[in-house]
Amino acid sequence: MFIIGELINGMYSNIALALKDRDKKIVQTCALEQIASGADALDLSCGPASKNPLIDMPWLVEVIQEVTDKPLCLDSGKPKVIEEGLKVAKNKTIINSTTADVEKLEILIPLAKKYRSKLIGITISAKGIPQNKDQRLELAATILTHTGEQGFPIEDLYLDPIVMPINVAQGQIRDILEVLLEFKMISQPPPKTIIGLSNISQGAKARSLINRTFLSMAVASGLDSAILNPKDKELMDALITAELILNKNIYCDSYLEAYRKK
Ligand code: THG
User: Which of 95, 198, 211, 224 maximizes ligand 1 atoms within 8 Å of its Cβ, making it the mutation to test the pocket?
Assistant: First the structure.
């Protein structure tokens, strides 16, 4: 599982404050703690409170690459914000994200090619978030058609079915688990899959328990990558155990210690 740490997000008050005060230390500590907990990459989002994401995003990139060379996942709905991050990035990058709208695909696929970035395609369009499996598959097919036409390498594409909070869309969670498997069947070679895990438990109690139970199920549906909180130790242990049960890790009595990344 390719783990992308979610904690550098202006949605969190410490990061919002760090952006406002240009406090490098808070951001760098948050980066290093997530990596020490097992993150393979870091999601960077200025969040809704940022008044100047065009300046905040490249600042985040520069500050973080002073302390790590892990890949950076540039998270914004605005292609210009992502591009400002790409311009200064020395580390590998992941564009997070393009929707299935043609206008977005025509900007972000060429940008990903230009900067040799991976690309996350989310199954959302101007019509909103899909309400069923068929709509999710249709949007995934649109993204695959456009990346194919533009010669974007499919192994660098991650499809995201968009996880909804369980307290607002309980009936859709099972669909999401099923489309994770079905995305793999739409094309050969198959695209990779990704989810924003914590979405599922927003506004719910027992967040960590819901997150780790869902992650275990998504791993069984072939999930390749997740944006999650790597500092949640029980979540990380559940992930290692799910991969053990699927025969991706070799069993020994001390398997948790053996597979915990340092
Ligand atoms: N897909 C893709 N990218 C994404 C998401 C996705 N990026 C953003 C998000 N979803 C993933 N990241 C988070 C980060 C934090 C939370 C959820 C998802 C979260 N935050 C607390 C909350 O809202 O309750 C904030 C608590 C606080 O303020 O301290 O849950 O799906 N491609």
Answer: 198
**Using one digit for the tens of pLDDT, what is the confidence trace for 113-165?**
999 999 999 999 999 999 999 999 999 999 999 999 999 999 999 999 999 99
**Closest by alpha carbon to 13, among 49, 42, 41, 56?**
49
> Ligand 1 pocket check: which of 4, 7, 9 to mutate, most ligand atoms within 8 Å of Cβ?
9
| Ligand 1: residue whose CA is nearest its atom 4 | 196
CA dist 87 and 64 (Å) reads 14
pTM here?
A: 0.97
* pLDDT tens column, 186-220: 999 999 999 999 999 999 999 999 999 999 999 99
Condensed to tens digits (0 to 9), the pLDDT of residues 26-61 reads 999 999 999 999 999 999 999 988 999 999 999 999
Best of 11, 26, 43, 98 for a ligand 1 pocket test (most atoms within 8 Å of beta carbon): 11
Ordered by where they begin, the domains of the chain are 2-232 (3.20.20.20)
How buried is 169 (Cβ within 10 angstroms: 0-12 exposed, 13-18 middle, 19+ buried)? middle
Tell me 196's DSSP state. Answer: E
Q: Report residue 237: phi and psi, to 5°.
A: -70, -35
What the block records as the tokens of 25 is 């230390």
Measured in Å, residue 106 CA sits from the centre of ligand 1 at: 26
Contact of 26 with 63, CB cutoff 8 Å: no
Return the residue whose CA atom lies nearest to atom 5 of ligand 1: 196
